[in-house]
Amino acid sequence: MLDQGHAPNVVTFNVLINALAKMRKAKEAKELLSLMIQRGEMPDVWTYNSLMDCLYRAGNIEELKEVFTSMERKGIAADVVSYNILIKGYCKHGMIGKASKIYRKMIQNGVKPDIFTLNALLEGMLLKGRMTDVAQLRRDIVVHNLTPNSCTYNILVDGLCKNGYIQEALELFEIINVSKLKLNISTYNCLIDGLSKAGRLEKALELFGRLSSEELVANVATYTILISGLCKAGKISEANKMFVDMEKSGSTPNIVTYSILIDGFCKAGEISEAYRMFVDMEKSGTTPDIVAYSILIDGLCKAGEMSEACRMFVDMEKRGSPPNEYTFGALIHGFCQINDTQTVVQLLQVMTDRGMKLNEVIEDMVMTQLLKEDNCHKYLHLLPTFPPR
């Protein structure tokens, strides 16, 4: 364009900078902005907003702030979009104090916030658990005559649940339910999880039952949350049925789902079912991790099936999943139950050889076991020296 004698104007530069910004090419966009200024074309707020949005998406909060400040120095008034980008950037990086300061500055400068401003601030405040500020922001929505959108309610319900305000989240949920606004599956999951953890499993299942009428599809997180809640409530049959329904629906269980159900079967004393679930997990192509192995080994040890527990322990190591303190603790507890002090001491030696620390639970188990021995002094000198906790 320049070679052909055509001088690009501000509109041309803006289009090019915006295109580069969308391609996440912040460096090139900044270079073009510099060229624009050198050629005497004055950038406008739209130019700066494009560049700031690019920097926000790239996570360059310091550069974002510099561009915002540069815009102000040039006498270009920031608009609501400019402020929103900077506020979102600060909130995304947990810099809530700075986000609040920009929000106050925005209002002082006569720029009216929109619902996107409040959504960003609400999400940031909820992540930090600043509930007093959340309450004030909810009042600000009314003061500024703004209409909450689906995103607002999703943020609020999700944040209230994660901060333990389950009843308030549920009340807000019911208000939304009679409106035309829709909540997404993530928000349903958060509310179902909150209710489940609060012991309100029936209400959680009731919400699960509403999903189809809301034209929402339960995902792996939804099923995993409910399976976990049912297992913790001792309803292992219902949890297993939920697992079967999950597979029928086309939702694929992940390692967390399998581990929760294996743990549920172990705690219910159904070791054969736990083992079956472990085998099914492998058949499905899901590779067992240290958590899944440790859960099953613990269950086998508590059931007195030490040979199988040891076999799993060896298999675990062969597959490149090294046992942790929890795994060793499960085995040590199992051998303490059958009074095999010699093996307990050997396991302790393996732990110290691997640089593991002896936690209080294992220490108490070992000391209790040694005191049972008539010749405990025989073993005391065999105990390895562990690094300090």
TrEMBL record:
Transmembrane segments: none annotated. It comes from the Eukaryota. The keyword Acetylation does not apply. PPR repeats lie at residues 9-43, 44-78, 79-113, 149-183, 184-218, 219-253, 254-288, 289-323, 324-358. NCBIfam families: PPR. Belongs to the PPR family. P subfamily. Signal peptide: none annotated. This is Pentatricopeptide repeat-containing protein. Keywords: Repeat. InterPro entries: PPR_P_subfamily, PPR_rpt, TPR-like_helical_dom_sf.
